């Protein structure tokens, strides 16, 4: 059964518009009465059927609500310093698959890539599309939000008053504090993860992170590439605090195979 994200809420009648509607109608050749899985992007999902086609839109009829366990009980935000080339595309895709709740692209001292305002907006739009496609493919009911690119200090100061969040930054100079120890000592389910660029963080940035409540942790003896570090760190956090390694939900009984529109 195909999965599609709605622009609005789940209701008795719904519409799919834009590129998704075109793909359903012209590429997938959806037929009247065909069943779809719809998600509202906020955690709700339902079974629906194709009720009609009009002016480039696909009209849907509600069938029943579904109880999916597709989202992690851990709310994880990734503060990712921008890597070289197109590696951020890969990071967005894979961390979405692993259940990240929000991705915050960050500029730090050793970030090589720099965008003007127009290019930065275009990049964020691209990453948001990648996140949406990855969310469809892996069967999520939420699409992680990709935030605008900001300098590291602004990212630290813009965290808000998340009093009970666990804040981690992965620092190659940290040799003693292990991730598993920090995770086992905390009951927090909201977790902020700061991953550096090629070249890592300088000392002033490490001090800035600590001043804003982040704890430096190590991922082990080997220095990982930036894209590897983000994925490994998120997988380890999800295994300890989230849903990685848990059994699939009963939604598989409906024959859903994670097919995206």
Automatic annotation (TrEMBL):
Documented EC number(s): 2.1.1.193
Span of domain Ribosomal RNA small subunit methyltransferase E methyltransferase: 71-238
GO CC term (a single one): cytoplasm
Subcellular location: Cytoplasm
Catalytic activity of the protein: uridine(1498) in 16S rRNA + S-adenosyl-L-methionine = N(3)-methyluridine(1498) in 16S rRNA + S-adenosyl-L-homocysteine + H(+)
GO terms assigned for molecular function: rRNA (uridine-N3-)-methyltransferase activity
Keyword line: Cytoplasm, Methyltransferase, rRNA processing, S-adenosyl-L-methionine, Transferase
Listed Pfam families: Methyltrans_RNA, PUA_4
BP GO annotations: rRNA base methylation
InterPro entries for this protein: Alpha/beta_knot_MTases, PUA-like_sf, RsmE, RsmE_MTase_dom, RsmE_PUA-like, tRNA_m1G_MTases_N
CDD domains on file: RsmE-like (cd18084)
Annotated ranges, domain Ribosomal RNA small subunit methyltransferase E PUA-like: 17-62
Summary of the function given for this chain in its UniProt record: Specifically methylates the N3 position of the uracil ring of uridine 1498 (m3U1498) in 16S rRNA. Acts on the fully assembled 30S ribosomal subunit.
Similarity comment text for this entry: Belongs to the RNA methyltransferase RsmE family.
NCBIfam families referenced in this protein's UniProt entry, alphabetically: PRK11713.1-5, RsmE family RNA methyltransferase
Protein name per UniProt: Ribosomal RNA small subunit methyltransferase E
């Amino acid at each position: 059964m195909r999965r599609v994200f709605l622009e609005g809420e789940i209701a008795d009648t719904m519409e799919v518009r834009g590129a998704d509607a075109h793909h359903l109608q012209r590429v997938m050749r959806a037929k009247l009465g065909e069943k779809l899985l719809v998600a509202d992007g906020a955690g709700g999902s339902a079974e629906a059927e194709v009720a009609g086609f009009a002016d480039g839109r696909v009209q849907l009829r509600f069938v029943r609500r579904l109880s999916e366990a597709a989202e992690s009980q851990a709310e994880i935000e990734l503060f990712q310093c921008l890597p070289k080339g197109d590696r951020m595309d890969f990071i967005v895709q894979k961390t979405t698959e692993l259940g990240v709740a929000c991705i915050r692209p960050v500029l730090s001292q050793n970030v090589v890539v720099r965008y003007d305002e127009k290019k930065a907006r275009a990049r964020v739009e691209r990453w948001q599309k990648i996140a949406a496609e990855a969310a469809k493919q892996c069967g999520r009911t939420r699409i992680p939000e990709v935030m605008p690119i900001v300098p590291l200090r602004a990212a630290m100061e813009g965290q808000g008053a998340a009093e009970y969040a666990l804040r981690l930054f992965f620092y190659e100079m940290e040799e003693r504090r292990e991730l598993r120890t920090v995770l086992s000592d905390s009951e927090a389910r909201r977790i902020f993860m700061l991953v550096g660029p090629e070249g890592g963080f300088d000392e002033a940035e490490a001090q800035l992170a600590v001043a804003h409540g982040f704890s430096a942790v190590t991922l082990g003896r080997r220095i990982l590439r930036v894209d590897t570090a983000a994925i490994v760190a998120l997988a380890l956090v999800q295994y300890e605090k989230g849903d990685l390694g848990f059994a699939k939900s009963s939604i598989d009984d409906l024959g859903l195979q994670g097919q995206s529109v």
